[in-house]
Amino acid sequence: MFDLSPQRQAIVSVLLMAVIPSLTSFYLGHEAAGENISFPFSCALAVGMTALIAYAGFNIIKKYPDNISQLNRYIGELTSGNLPERISLLKTEECSDLKYIEKSFNQLLEDVIKAEHHRAMVESLSVLCTRLSEPAQEVDRYLHVLERHIQEDADIQIVRECLKDIAVVNSTINKIFSSKEFKEAGLHPQRSGIQAARRLSSSEFAQLIGLAVSCPFTKDEADCPLGEIRRMPLKKRLNSIHDLSDEEARRIIAQHCTCSEMKELAE
Q1: Alpha helices, H only, the chain
Q2: Which of 68, 69, 64, 71 is nearest to 7 (CA)?
Q3: What's this model's pTM, rounded to 2 decimal places?
Q4: SS (H, E, C) 15-76
Q5: How confident is the model at residue 265 (pLDDT cuts 50, 70, 90)?
Q6: Each residue of 52-91: pLDDT tens digit?
Q7: How far is the C-alpha of 200 from the C-alpha of 146, rounded, in Å?
Q8: Residue 159 CA: distances (Å) to CA of 86, 143, 178, 265
């Protein structure tokens, strides 16, 4: 209705809803007491003018309660995670301050949507890197053991190429998790199960695999934990190695890692 500032609109609405009707009623009452006009006519005129002027004042300020309710609904949607496509207020074309409020809230909504998309991307990348880092490190360990056991030059070259690729994968994952965005978000690679508790070094892990795969056994060692592992098929042997605790793994290495081949693995 009027392109005024909120403060001026409030002053105008107070004048229309209170001051002017009061002055009008006082004037008509004074004139009626002086018998310049009839009392019924003055009452009807006072009521009519009061209603008309009060409606004009109410019409100025009624858009604010309606828009406050509208904003409250939008804020409820934002806090619940249901982001609206756009925030639209009522009668913004009639009032510059409402138009400014609408523009500000829509800018805030765009920032929230961008931040939500960025957060989802970072968390998804974190999960992906975590899932990749665990098998990549295990493959790296197995390849190092395999490199020491194979004899053919062609096979050794293939294994070394694989080791280079795995090193690139691990390096990329470490760079991602050491980046500023991941540190600020408090995201770190998470391990689960046996891998979360394992603190064996690469050389210790290589020794353990070598013991399970190729180290000779005496008859007295047949009933020991490592002997039970050696009686299993190769795939089950590797799975059983993962099921060992750090203490059990180091105890087996200390008891059985005496042959020269295992000592070379530790170097």
Answers
A1: 6-14, 20-33, 39-61, 63-80, 96-149, 153-177, 180-185, 193-197, 202-213, 225-230, 234-243, 246-256, 260-266
A2: 64
A3: 0.43
A4: HHHHHHHHHHHHHHHHHHHCCCCCHHHHHHHHHHHHHHHHHHHHHHHCHHHHHHHHHHHHHH
A5: very low
A6: 766 766 666 666 777 777 777 887 777 777 777 777 776 6
A7: 18
A8: 56, 6, 28, 16
In whole angstroms, what is the distance from residue 62 CA to residue 79 CA?
26
Q: How many residues in the chain?
A: 267
- Coil, helix or strand at residue 190: coil
Neighbours of 36 (CB within 10 A): 10
Q: What is the mean pLDDT of residues 122-132?
A: 77
- At residue 193, the pLDDT reads 36
pLDDT in tens, 138-147: 788 777 777 7
For the chain, the structural domain boundaries read 6-115, 192-267
Give the residue among 174, 172, 143 at the shortest CA–CA distance from 159.
143
> Which two three-digit tokens encode residue 79?
């806090």
Task: Work out the percent of the chain whose per-residue pLDDT is above 90.
Answer: 0
Distance CA 4, CA 97 (A): 8
What's the token pair of residue 158? 């293939």
Terminal alpha carbon distance of the chain:
86
Instruction: Please state, in angstroms and rounded to a whole number, the distance separating the CA atoms of residues 123 and 51.
Output: 60
> φ, ψ for residue 86 (rounded to 5)?
-155, 150
Picking from 25-39, 104-118, 196-210, which range would have the lowest pLDDT averaged per residue? Answer: 196-210
